[in-house]
Every structure is written in C-alpha cells, then in structure tokens.
Amino acid sequence: MESRSRGSMDIKEYFTRISYRGSYGKPDLATLTDIFQHHIRAVPYENLSIHCGESIELDLEATYNKIVRKKRGGWCMENNYLLSWVLKTLGFNITLLGSKVYVPEYDRYADQINHLLLKVVLDDKSYIVDGGFGMVYQTWQPMELISGTDQPQTPGVFRFVEESGVWYLEKVKRKQWVPNQSVSTSQTLEIVCRRVYLFTLQPRDIEDFRACNAHLQTAPDSMFVKKSICSLQTADGIQALVGWKLIEVKYNYKDNMDLVEIRILADEEIEKTLKEKFNITLDKKFVPINTTRSPLF
Asked: What confidence tens digit (pLDDT) does each residue in 117-149 have?
C-alpha cells in the first residue's frame, strides 16, 4: 500500500468527500465496488469548467483540489485519474488504458483515444473500472474483462466483445418511457443495443492523454465545447443537466422500462439546480450551451 497522503492529498479527506465509511485495509473486489459506487454517486461527471472560463488541468493535485476540496466533478480524465491515485494508495494493481468513444452522430468510433479507463487485477482476474463516463452509460460496478458474457447491472446489461485484441463495450438498454407534459400521450423508446467505446490492453501513461485533454476543451467541433453537461448517478438512476435540459432517469421504473423525465430550465434556475441536484457551486459565471444533436441517452 502506498503512502496515504501525497503532498496535500489525503485519502481520508477523499473518503469524506464521497461519504465512504467502509473498510479499506484489504484490496478486494467488495472494497473496490463499494468505493467506486460511492464515487459515482458523489462526484458528478461534468464539463462545466469549459463553459465558465476555466481550463481543465491534467494534474493530479489540481484534480484532487477541484473534486475533493471544491466539491466539483470532472470528466473521464479527472475522475479516473483521481480514482487511479485512490486505488493505488489502497494497494490495488492499476493500469491506465485508453479508449475511443463511439459517436452515434457519425456511426463510428473516434479516430484517436479520447477516454481514460482503469484496469484493475484482482486474484488473477482483470476488471475495467470507469468512473468517468456519466449519463446512462455509466457502469455501477467494476466489469470483469471477459468477452461475450452479459454483465447485468442496475443501469442495464453491459458486455465486452473482444475481436483480434480490440475490446468493445456495449450496453443493452431497456425501453424508455418519456412522459410528455404538453400532450396526453407519452413516448416509449425501444430496447436497443448501443456501442459505447473500444479499447486495447496497451498500458498508457497520463501523458498520453495530454493532447486529448487540450483538444476536447478547445476544438470547435468537440462535443464538450458544444454541450454543457453535468450528470450524477443516484440511488435508482441518474440526474443530468445538459444545456438547459434537466433530465431525471429512474431505472427499471416499471415493466422493464426506465422512466425519463425532462424539463427545460430558465436561466435563473440553473445556479440553484446545480447546487440542489449536484451540490456544485461555481466560482465563475456559467453559460449553458447545447448546440449538438449527439444523443447522450
């Protein structure tokens, strides 16, 4: 087990941030799962920095300060980088991996790696730990790295498929029931198998993500520039603020359907919603945006 503090970073302060009061003396699957679930329910997946005049630094202590002390969230390179430090500190065997996210708009995967993952080895089994995808494609448990086996979780059925050394993550979603407040009918979206991302087992260093981290927060065609996102996993689903759209999902609400409720917020509701739903208070003025049709759920 590594030292439980690094500079001004302290594991117990992190545990307070995620309200974790469990044991951490043994690096086993139960401990890994418990910490992971506390993390995703306490730390939002968000890119709000881009839309309030801040830069996202690929620096561990800066990420720690942002997430733990300022009670903010972050995107994959922040959430999973911080999780890698937490798990290494507790004695877990961690490897950074890079993935290419599937883009439904173009029906293809990204050309370059644009998502950070963690591989954890426990008792000769490998698991993928990803605390930084957000929305309805966020896993709720570590996934065993095994091809072709359905791994049911509360959000839906996830599975890996391996072909020639490339691993693909897929999710089978339930039907979604979307009540429409303006008319008497509701919309039901069908069950669908959705590609999420692909990756290889090539070990990565955090430096491999530096160009990607800069590109995604500055490129005019980046989804993260075109869309402000804040999502948090809850006890029974997710809540998310995408632009001005507040989305609340309850998994398996009834008849194997997920309930999806959507409300458009006024500008004056945004700050209060971030505080009440996500426990986020921003230092600078936030300007919501949603100018891309790329679906997030």
From this structure: 999 999 999 999 999 999 999 999 999 999 999
Active-site residue, from 130, 212, 230, 258 = 130
Q: How many CB atoms lie within 10 A of CB 285?
A: 9
Q: Are 96 and 85 in contact (CB under 8 A)?
A: no
Query: Known catalytic residue: 115?
Result: yes
Q: What is the mean pLDDT of the segment spanning 246-250? A: 96
Which candidate in 38, 51, 59, 115 is catalytic? 115
Catalytic residue, from 39, 51, 76, 258: name it.
76
- Entry pTM: 0.94
CA–CA distance, 282 with 297 (Å, rounded to integer): 26
Helix ranges (DSSP H) in the chain: 11-17, 29-42, 60-64, 76-89, 210-216, 223-226, 267-278
Is 130 part of the annotated catalytic residue set? yes
Rg value, the chain, Cα: 18
Which of the two residues, 88 and 6, has the higher pLDDT score?
A: 88
Q: Is 158 helix (H, G, I), strand (E, B) or coil?
A: strand
For 27-46, how does the pLDDT look when each residue is reduced to its tens digit (9 = 90+)? 999 999 999 999 999 999 99
CA separation, residue 289 to residues 183, 217, 245, 295 (Å)? 26, 14, 10, 14
Buried b (16+ CB within 10 A) or exposed e, 139-166: bbbbbebeeeeeeeeebbebbbeeeeee
Unique residue bearing structure tokens 């890996």: 160
CA 85 to chain centroid, in Å, comes to 17
Who contacts 181 (Cβ-Cβ below 8 Å, separation ≥6)? 263
Angle between helix 29-42 and 76-89 (nearest 10): 140
